[in-house]
Amino acid sequence: MALLTPELQAMIGRQVHYPAREAFGHASIRYFALAMHDDNPLYVDDEYAQAAGHAGVIAPPTLVCETCQYAHRAPDADGYIGHEWHLPVPGCRMIRAGNDYTFNRPVLATDRISVTWTLESMVEKPSSRGGTQLFVMSVATYCDAQGHTVATNREALVFQPLVPHAQTQP
User: Fold this and answer.
1) Which tens digit of pLDDT belongs to each residue from 99-118?
2) What is the pTM of this model?
3) Which domains are assigned to the chain?
4) pLDDT of residue 83
5) What pLDDT score does 167 carry?
6) H or E segment at 8?
């Protein structure tokens, strides 16, 4: 049985847009820096950030990709509120296999950041454990209120069957 079904193939190219609800905020930036044990004054001191050539406090680069400030839903059973594709791949576990970030400019506390997720591709490949696994690529594009891209996050997900899956050969 193939993992990459016609139903999944039809989802390639799907987009989901989450508009900004409010400015990013000084507190979000400060909390993230604290959680990362990063005491860079660019993240907490407006005067320091301005002296360094910024309009004010900036966010640590990955915060824009790791925050769920754009989320407009209640947490799921695991407490997660971020974007998920909810792909119908029964009998598999999903593994986040990596991210490739591009940062075009620092995010300011005053920025209103929206994100658009695009499901780019799905490929079924042989697994070293026998059978196949499904590789899913998606990209999140983070834009400011003027529509300028401030960052992108290309994410790889892998769906692996939970049971030894010689029977899942395409």
Assistant:
1) 999 999 999 999 999 999 99
2) 0.86
3) 6-23+72-168 (3.10.129.10)
4) 81
5) 46
6) helix 6-9
